[in-house]
């Protein structure tokens, strides 16, 4: 591998962009979880969460040979072979479904009762939940990286660069979501969808995430128009 090889740089740029896209789900989830904490602790939780995501991805990349065996079927049900990756995806999808429903219920019930949502979640409890979902998102991301790049040095560099971008973007995204409850509800709805996609993927029914991200971007654009319209009406 030569540093002047253009294929190396193309691979690095492509993989970095892909890691950023695949990390959007993770940023949204970390942002929502951090929002359960006191405002003074939210930035620290986001930083620790993304740092743990980086460590998880690098450790998985360093375990590349074990990772390739993780896709081998462990057992079969109705003719479908379930691998270790499939089981992690299903467990992570179920966790996302449970957590998203729990957050939506807490938000809606808080609004209906006229009381603000309580931010009493313990700091390390939030970090523990971030670690669990980091493992799920990291597994999917790393398996994708292994399939696209041939050199582990390129994979690690791409992950580090992507995490740097995500770390810079986490605070603005977190502040925006906290200022606009409708955006938070939209994000939670898409996390429900991502959870279903993870379960389907684990059961052998692959769903192209491009459709999910397009739907997410379209819904976000519509909601931004709604927010802008409400601001104009408030000024009028």
From TrEMBL:
Listed InterPro entries: Integral_membrane_TerC
Highest taxon in the source lineage: Bacteria
GO CC annotations, alphabetized: plasma membrane
Membrane-spanning ranges: 12-35, 47-68, 74-98, 123-146, 152-170, 182-199, 211-227
Entry keywords, A to Z: Membrane, Transmembrane, Transmembrane helix
PANTHER family xref list: COILED-COIL PROTEIN (DUF2040)-RELATED, INNER MEMBRANE PROTEIN
Protein name as annotated: Integral membrane protein TerC
Species annotation: Chthoniobacter flavus Ellin428
């Amino acid at each position: 591998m030569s540093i002047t090889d253009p294929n190396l740089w193309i691979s690095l740029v492509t993989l970095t962009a892909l890691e950023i896209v695949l990390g959007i789900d993770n940023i949204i989830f970390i942002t929502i979880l951090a929002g359960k904490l006191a405002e003074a602790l939210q930035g620290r939780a986001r930083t620790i969460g993304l740092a743990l995501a980086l460590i998880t991805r690098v450790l998985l990349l360093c375990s590349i040979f074990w990772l390739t065996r993780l896709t081998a079927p462990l057992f079969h049900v109705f003719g479908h072979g379930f691998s270790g990756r499939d089981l992690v995806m299903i467990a992570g999808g179920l966790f996302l479904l449970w957590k998203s429903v729990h957050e939506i219920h807490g938000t809606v019930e808080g609004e209906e009762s006229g009381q603000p949502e309580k931010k009493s979640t313990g700091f390390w409890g939030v970090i523990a939940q971030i670690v669990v979902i980091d493992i799920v998102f990291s597994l999917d991301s790393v398996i994708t990286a292994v399939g696209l790049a041939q050199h582990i040095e390129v994979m690690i560099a791409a992950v580090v660069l992507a995490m740097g971008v995500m770390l810079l973007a986490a605070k603005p995204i977190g502040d925006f979501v906290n200022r606009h409850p409708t955006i938070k509800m939209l994000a939670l709805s898409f996390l429900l969808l991502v959870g279903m996609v993870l379960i389907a993927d684990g059961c052998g029914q692959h769903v192209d995430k491009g459709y999910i991200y397009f739907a997410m971007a379209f819904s976000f654009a519509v909601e931004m128009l709604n927010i802008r319209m409400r601001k104009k009406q408030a000024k009028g």
